[in-house]
Amino acid sequence: MSDSRLYQNTKTGELVEFINLHDKEFAMVKKSTGSVVYVNFDSLVPYDAQKGRLAKVALPTATPVEEQVPETVVPIEDTRLNLNGATAEQIAKRLPGVGYATAKKIIELRMSLSGERFANLKQLENIPRVNWDQLIEDDLIFIS
Question: Which stretch of DSSP H or E encloses residue 133?
Answer without folding.
Answer: helix 132-137
